[in-house]
Write a structure and sequence with these properties.
The chain is of the alpha/beta class. The protein contains eleven helices and eleven strands. The protein folds into two domains: about 180 residues, Rossmann fold (3-Layer(aba) Sandwich); about 100 residues, no CATH class. The longest helix is centred in the C-terminal third of the chain and has 16 residues.
């Protein structure tokens, strides 16, 4: 694709490229309808909402946003948030051209603002507060950003829409309350039901034999029942490895059960071979972490004879 540029405040910005929106949402359509409702405006004075989509990694949060953009027939831009994301990365970045001059690159977010597209801030709770602060005026009634680097303000197109995905895991930042109050409502993506999970795996791996698909679905459904966060993405990787190993040597085929066991160990770790035991271990760990601690626990081991609570 050729470079696209736009002039704002006397500054030429090179725009980012949208991503394809050819993925379908397979599963409960209620969550998709909720996201689409957030982006509606029902009066000229009304403003769209910027929801946060939460759930474990690999459950389909990004796919949900892609499908919503597809239904609205709008261009989609995705910005991958990281722990070292800077405000200028989110907004406008200066770059040195081949001729040695300074050019300005608009981020996917700013490009969506200008073009009237949709921006997904992916894994937003991996981002630090300084970066979030630069978005505060965009996420309220002002709908604008102020780029210190380029020395310009950019106001969002009336069709601009935004959402943020957030993983539920420990490797994330605490998002400031003044930002969370702007990222409303909170839409939780749940693990899919059995028939939906089977349809998702078949969609991504249409060449997989039915019996192998069912094997993966049964594993994932049992994991969901035990509150173990193995996701559809894990299932896809399990199936890919299994199918490749089964097809590797047609003259000396491996047994399906042996390959499946190998796939579990290689993709998810040996602990995935026994889901019940893994669930018990994690429950024990969670129980130990939730036990209240006295002052003595910070200075003495539990079995120390000097522990004041012994």
């Amino acid at each position: 694709m050729s470079d696209r540029h736009v002039q704002i405040g006397g500054v030429s910005l090179r725009l980012a490229q949208p991503i394809p929106t050819d993925q379908e949402w397979i599963g409960d359509r209620e969550i998709l309808q909720q996201l689409l409702a957030c982006w509606l405006t029902i009066d000229p004075r009304d403003l769209p909402l910027c929801p946060r989509i939460i759930g474990p990694p690999g459950i389909g949060k990004t796919t949900l946003a892609i499908s919503a953009a597809r239904e609205r027939k709008q261009a989609l831009y995705i910005y991958q948030c990281t722990a070292d994301t800077r405000p200028e990365d989110l907004l406008i970045t200066p770059v040195v051209t081949e001729g040695g001059t300074i050019a300005y690159q608009a981020s996917p977010l700013v490009t969506a603002m200008i073009e009237g597209g949709i921006c997904l801030l992916d894994e937003g709770n991996r981002m630090n507060e300084k970066s979030w602060a630069s978005l505060a005026p965009l996420l309220d009634h002002r709908r604008m950003i102020d780029s210190v680097v380029a020395g310009i303000q950019v106001h969002a197109h009336e069709n601009f829409r935004c959402c943020v995905t957030m993983n539920e895991d420990a490797s994330t930042y605490e998002v400031p309350d003044y930002i969370l109050s702007r990222l409303q409502p909170s839409l939780k993506v749940e693990f899919p039901r059995r028939e939906h999970e089977l349809a998702i795996l078949r969609y991504h791996l249409p060449f997989a034999p039915q019996e192998v698909l069912v094997l993966a679905v049964e594993f994932l459904q049992r994991a969901h029942q035990l509150n173990l966060h193995f996701s559809v993405r894990d299932g896809i990787h399990l199936l890919q490895y299994t199918l490749k190993r089964l097809a590797q040597d047609p003259l000396h085929p491996l047994s399906r059960d042996a390959v499946w066991r190998e796939a579990l160990m290689k993709v998810l770790g040996e602990e995935a071979l026994d889901l019940e035991e893994l669930a018990r271990q994690r429950q024990r760990i969670a129980g130990e972490q939730s036990l209240p601690k006295g002052l003595g626990d910070f200075f003495f081991e539990p079995d120390d004879p000097l522990h004041p609570d012994r």
